Structure formats: structure tokens, C-alpha cells
Amino acid sequence: MKVKLTLQEIATGVEKKIRVNKQVACSSCSGSGAKDKSSFKTCGTCGGAGQVRKVTQTFLGQMATTSTCPTCNGEGNVITNNCTSCRGTGRMEGEETITVKIPAGVADGMQMNISGKGNAPERGGIPGDLHVLFEEIKDPILRRDGNNIIYEHFINFADAALGTQIEVPTVTGKVKLKVDAGTQSGKILRLKGKGLPEVNNPRYVGDQLVQLNVWTPKKLSNE
Predict the structure, then answer these.
(1) pLDDT tens over the chain, length 223 residues
(2) Distance of CA 196 to CAs 40, 143, 205, 211, Å?
(3) Which of 31, 44, 73, 112 is the most exposed place for a label (fewest CB within 10 A)?
């Protein structure tokens, strides 16, 4: 399943509840596939062992091999009367709401495997895994570059020449920055530790790079 995440959710980590349509154990027969407990009999092919032994004659002598019983598929018994709800398969279409704890720092295309939350097997056994694929939602103003965040901020000639204080957005909220007098267009200010954490090393956090661009007006007044 795909799970969409914002940069803010990626920065801090998040818990998501997702609804999964999948094969679940039949509620009528508890996944056995039989109508009731008396609807089983011992497999006549393997005698309840679940395996069959075959002896073949080779030039080196007799060779014995064992394999899964083809009649009962290794279960040791066969169903005499199928469950009417699942028709003997032991599973049916269902839905489950699963809480997924997503760590901080994941990237677009990364995958998380959740054991035992996939499809139920036929007539009992261990369910498969759920594969969760992360998809990053493109932020309208912040751009990701690895663990760093890039943001472009426009200032006017007066602020660039005289200096000013600006407020810029980050993945964890707004912060104030000082712009020195005489700042040139294209200068980059670094906000240490305001980027994204490393998914396997949460102690390492990237930076936010703020690129200052001087806005040039197309028309000037006499003033």
C-alpha cells in the first residue's frame, strides 16, 4: 500500500491508520475451511503424516525420497464438509485498520514491511506481510535535497542594502533570520539542524538553506 507523507510528517515521524482490503480468516470456521470439527477425516494417502515416501530403484540401489502429500497438501487430514461461507478455503475478503508507526527521515520510494499483516493463507497458517510504500507529497514552498531543505526568499533593494530581519518557514515552524547590510543576491544562509533527520541515524539532522534573492522592480517611482 502507498502512504502519502508531508515534509512536516517526515521531519518528526508520524503514526498513520490505514485501512487494508485483504484476505482474512473466515469468521464462520475460524480459518479451518470445514463446516464444523467433525468435518475432517485422516488423509488416506499419507495416513495423517502430511508427507509421502517414495522408494525408487537406481543403479546405486534403492533411494527413498519424501515429499508433501498431494492429496492433503501436508495438512494430514481432508475436509469432508466444506464451510458454506468460504467454500473450504478458510479465508474471505475483509478489511483491517492497521496503525503504522513511521520513523522520521524516510524518503520517497522507501518501503516498510509489517510482518503478519498481509493476506491470510488458506486453511490456517501464518499470514503474509504488508508492504508499505512511502510517497512524499511535494511541498509548495520547501524543496528537499537529501536531508537538507532549500527555501528561496525574496527581498527588496532597500533591505539588501540596509539589512533587515525576515521570517522564514521550516519543517518545524517559522524562524527569524538576520539579513546583514550589503547582502548580495544569491547569498545562502544556513539554518543548522533545521533539515530532516537520517532515517537510520536520527542524531544526524540536515540543515535548511535559505537563498536570498534581491527582487528587481520593473518600474520605479520618482521617490
Answers:
(1) 999 999 999 999 999 999 999 999 998 888 888 888 888 888 888 888 888 888 888 777 888 888 988 888 888 888 888 898 898 888 999 999 999 999 999 999 999 999 999 999 888 778 999 999 999 999 999 999 999 999 999 999 899 999 999 999 999 999 999 999 999 999 999 999 999 999 988 789 999 999 999 988 888 888 8
(2) 57, 11, 5, 18
(3) 44
User: Is residue 114 exposed (0-12), middle (13-18) or buried (19+ Cβ within 10 Å)?
Assistant: middle
At 7 the three-state DSSP class reads helix
Q: Which amino acid is at 214?
A: V
Spatial contact of 152 and 163, defined as CB atoms under 8 Å apart: no
In Å, how far are 58, 176, 198 from 15, measured between CA atoms? 61, 30, 18
Q: Output phi, psi for 159, to 5 deg.
A: -65, -35
